[in-house]
Amino acid sequence: MAMYWGTSRWSAMEIMEAYSVARQFNLIPPVCEQAEYHIFQREKIEVQLPELYHKIGVGAMTWSPLACGIISGKYDIGVPDSSRASLKCYQWLKDKIISEEGRRQQAKLKDLIPIAERLSCTLPQLAIGENSSRRS
């Protein structure tokens, strides 16, 4: 028997609808949303979900703080043969990395390197620190 359950990659409207249906039929509503959250993907956690945090008490569990490895720096000069983005089943990630948006993200990351250096940390450490500071 499940005592608690959550959603993954649902919209705020879908979560609210599930909550309403659960309440209507005296069922357990969702307690958390699992959402992608990193410096390039902040909208859902910071803008769309806060109302639900306060209104119905749903929480957030985030994933991919390094944007599937993009923030790690391993893709700053392309897609290495030894990376997961080179695997056939991760073609979507390779497409994302080599896209125009991917090139813009790489440029933004290069702009963040001096900040990370001033703080005596790596870019991934800066990114994870940015994420964790937002949640507290």
Automatic annotation (TrEMBL):
It comes from the Eukaryota. GO terms for biological process: potassium ion transport; regulation of potassium ion transmembrane transport; transmembrane transport. One of its GO terms (cellular component) is cytoplasm. Residues 4-128 form the NADP-dependent oxidoreductase domain. It is found in: Cytoplasm. GO terms for molecular function: oxidoreductase activity; potassium channel regulator activity; transmembrane transporter binding. Keywords: Cytoplasm, Ion transport, NADP, Oxidoreductase, Potassium, Potassium transport, Transport. Its main location: cytoplasm. InterPro entries: K_chnl_volt-dep_bsu_KCNAB-rel (IPR005399), K_chnl_volt-dep_bsu_KCNAB1 (IPR005400), NAD(P)_OxRdtase_dom_sf (IPR036812), NADP_OxRdtase_dom (IPR023210). Belongs to the shaker potassium channel beta subunit family. This is NADP-dependent oxidoreductase domain-containing protein.
